[in-house]
Amino acid sequence: MKKIIAVMAVAGAALSLAACDVDQTEEAELPEVEGGNMPEYDVSAPDVDVETGTETVEVPTLDVDVDEADDAAGEPVTGDEE
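^ thats the sequence. predicted structure below, dont judge the formating
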């Protein structure tokens, strides 16, 4: 179970990072004795437009023929065999 959770977390992180546009703005340098310089990045996430609305969906009507002879004297079927 822990493996499944870990895989889901890694997959979610990878998916969220795949949606970002990352541009490196400065090259990195190896540190000297006094210090170093870390690279800088500009990260811009994608714009997402979410709208809500009402849609009308047509549902087909079904015509079902039921054979009355299959109804066993009107008794409910419970699944218990005696």
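The mean pLDDT is 78.
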